[in-house]
Amino acid sequence: MKKVKFTNLYKLLKNKSQIFRKINLLIKQSKFVGGEEVVNFEKKFAKYTRSKYCITVANGTDALEIALGSLKLKKGSEVILPVNTWISTAEAIVTNGLKPIFCDINLDDYSISLKDLKKKISRRTRAIIAVHLYGNPTNIFKIKKMIKNKNIKIIEDCAQAHGTTLGKRHVGTFGDVGTFSFFPGKNLGAFGDGGAIVTQTKSIWDYCLRARNHGASKKYDHKFSGRNSRLDTFNAAVLNIKLKSYSQVLKKRNELSRIYFKKFEGIEDIISYKLNKKNTHSFHQFVIRTKYRDKLANYLRMNNIQTMVHYPYMLNELKFFDKRKLINAENLGKKILSLPISEEHSKNEILYVAEKIRLFFKTL
Ligand SMILES: Cc1ncc(COP(=O)(O)O)c(C=O)c1O
Predict the structure, then answer these.
(1) Which residues pair with 56 in a beta bridge?
(2) What's the mean pLDDT in 172-176?
(3) Rounded to whole angstroms, how far apart are CA atoms 119 and 106?
(4) Residue 118 has pLDDT above 90, yes or no
(5) Which CATH architecture has domain 9-244?
(6) What tens digit of pLDDT does each residue of 332-352 get?
(7) Does the beta carbon of 213 sit less than 6 angstroms from any atom of ligand 1?
(8) 299 has pLDDT over 90
(9) Which pLDDT score is estimated for 326?
(10) Closest ligand 1 atom number to CA of residue 183
(11) For domain 246-362, is the CATH number 3.30.360.10?
(12) Is 199 strand, coil or helix?
């Protein structure tokens, strides 16, 4: 085996010629911002997630910021989020003038710990951001039950969870508003940054539509001071093409995950996910946990296998955030390792990676 890359974004593009033709046409027609491609993608993505409304934006961070803005929470209100997530989840809270409250995570699925969430909910809590990290769905039903009759909103950060379902419903449709990222490395990635917001609520849709476009839903119809956060036409065109075959991406990632699960059976020093058969996982990342993480990553590197860490720090370890200790998350960034998994990896490549890992633990 020559080299197993973590991802190869160029190789991931199955529909290159179709995409190049489309972009050529859009250039010829001088279509660069907005237009049919964007409107079509919003319709298709709303249909795909079975949401009433979809608003595209420039990236997943803006999606979170605008979505939180749509809830019109009083400045200084507390918003709870899991501590193991990309920094954008917390940034969106801060930029909205709200206070992030970090919550511990479960060690078997890395989603928000309900036990800790219960402790973190206070009189000041106005929203919870549930992050469907790595493509694994968070148990929104239990969160909803916990906040029943309380004035607390739910935002779902689905940046890593295109196609993930809880039961038969797509994530992002359980809370008040759901957000997505189409960053090139995501399962459904564009040719640059991109994002989307989904909701079932008309007033949220109206706010987001305007907020992404200088407060206007059509030219010169400004109702408030917004920003420019539009998904450009090329990226919408790329996403329209990629969405058509996205079910194959999910199928392949799930197939490859099964190789890892099977090969890691009986290796005591590896802990992988606990899956719930009622839900589906989009395997944006395949993450294992081991106390030998650095040694293993080194060994894999020597064998030409690339790995990554999502994330090497928990947000409460960043000095500008609240540093209060969380039991499960402590030192988690030193134990987790993301293994190669994508639709461009062959079964043989994943078998090779899994075999090497088996060998590592045998000879430890
Ligand atoms: C969980 C999570 N939330 C939000 C984002 C932000 O998305 P973007 O990079 O498109 O701004 C990301 C992207 O990495 C993410 O993984």
Answers:
(1) 196
(2) 98
(3) 15
(4) yes
(5) 3-Layer(aba) Sandwich (3.40)
(6) 999 999 999 999 999 999 999
(7) no
(8) yes
(9) 96
(10) 10
(11) no
(12) strand
